[in-house]
TrEMBL record:
InterPro entries: FPG_cat, FPG_N, H2TH_FPG, Nei2_N, Ribosomal_uS13-like_H2TH, Znf_DNA_glyclase/AP_lyase. SMART domains: Fapy_DNA_glyco, H2TH. SUPFAM superfamilies: Glucocorticoid receptor-like (DNA-binding domain), N-terminal domain of MutM-like DNA repair proteins, S13-like H2TH domain. Residues 218-257 form the FPG-type domain. It is an enzyme of class 4 (lyase). This is DNA-(apurinic or apyrimidinic site) lyase. Belongs to the FPG family. Residues 2-90 form the Formamidopyrimidine-DNA glycosylase catalytic domain. Its EC number is 4.2.99.18. Keywords: DNA damage, DNA repair, DNA-binding, Endonuclease, Glycosidase, Hydrolase, Lyase, Metal-binding, Multifunctional enzyme, Nuclease, Zinc, Zinc-finger. One of its GO terms (biological process) is base-excision repair. GO terms for molecular function: class I DNA-(apurinic or apyrimidinic site) endonuclease activity; damaged DNA binding; oxidized pyrimidine nucleobase lesion DNA N-glycosylase activity; zinc ion binding. The keyword Signal does not apply.
Length: 257
């Protein structure tokens, strides 16, 4: 699932492919933005903010979110796409490259000076240059909900999704249902920062140090399988008001208290 590390890498690839050239193609295939055309405008670059992607073109910013299945692909003009055309939501091209966004969510174009309207509510981002650990700890510590829900709330810290929440809580030995005020927020965030920064430059995310499929996580996606530490069967549950896959939790009932 795309989390802050995936979005960071996506922004870097978009930046490398497009920045510095003029847009020769700008095609948004969503009703609310279909008439916007930034062809001919200079592409300044792309950055991530938590799980949000900002591509700056002319005086405007194209915002997108990868949600569950979204991705951006880079092609040479004329190269055959590796995905069906009906899934394409955005194409931004230059003379040298086409960036094609598939299954994207929250596509919007705003004046770049108004980016804060889209992402200003986000908490500190451990992959951003202005990362502020004290502010992240302050926001997380002030949350009285369960730690799993608080860690996923992008207003506290931006970039962690369900997989990070499950794995970080396992590594710290904390049940996902524990009230956040009982948790050492500074230690949890410190581990989260180290982990997401280590994964930032990997092609495949890992929490165990092994990146082979099926071996990269301790608990995430492993319901019913034995804990890698103690052998107890990993449990799966749902938490929070939002009935989406984002709220599914995985934990070891022996290792996490
Ligand atoms: Zn265990």
């Amino acid at each position: 699932m795309p989390e802050g590390d995936t979005v960071f890498r996506t922004a870097r690839r978009l930046d490398e492919a497009l920045a510095g050239a003029d847009a020769t193609r700008f095609d948004l295939r969503v009703p609310q933005a279909a008439t916007i055309d930034l062809t001919g405008q200079p592409i300044h670059g792309a950055v991530s903010r938590g799980k949000h992607l900002l591509l700056r073109v002319g005086d405007s910013t194209l915002h997108s979110h990868l949600r569950m299945d979204g991705a951006w692909f880079i092609y040479r003009p004329g190269e055959k796409w590796r995905h069906p055309a009906f899934k394409v939501r955005a194409i931004v091209g230059t003379a040298e490259r086409d960036a094609v966004g598939v299954d994207l969510a929250e596509i919007e174009v705003v004046p770049t000076r108004d980016e804060a309207q889209l992402v200003g509510y986000l908490g500190p981002d451990p992959l951003a240059e202005d990362w502020d650990p004290a502010e992240a700890v302050r926001r997380l510590s002030a949350d009285t909900r369960s730690i799993h829900v608080a860690l996923l709330d992008q207003r506290n810290v931006a970039g962690f999704g369900n997989e990070y929440a499950a794995e970080l809580l396992f590594l710290r030995g904390i049940l996902p249902t524990r009230p956040t005020p009982e948790v050492d927020a500074a230690a949890l965030i410190e581990l989260g920062v180290r982990t997401i920064r280590a994964n930032r430059d990997r092609s495949r995310r890992t929490f165990t140090g092994v990146d082979r499929p099926g071996q990269a996580t301790w608990v995430y996606g492993r319901a019913g399988k034995p804990c890698r530490r103690c052998g107890t069967l990993i449990r799966r549950g749902e938490q929070g008001a939002d009935p989406t896959r984002e709220r599914i939790t995985f934990w070891c009932p022996s290792c996490q208290r």
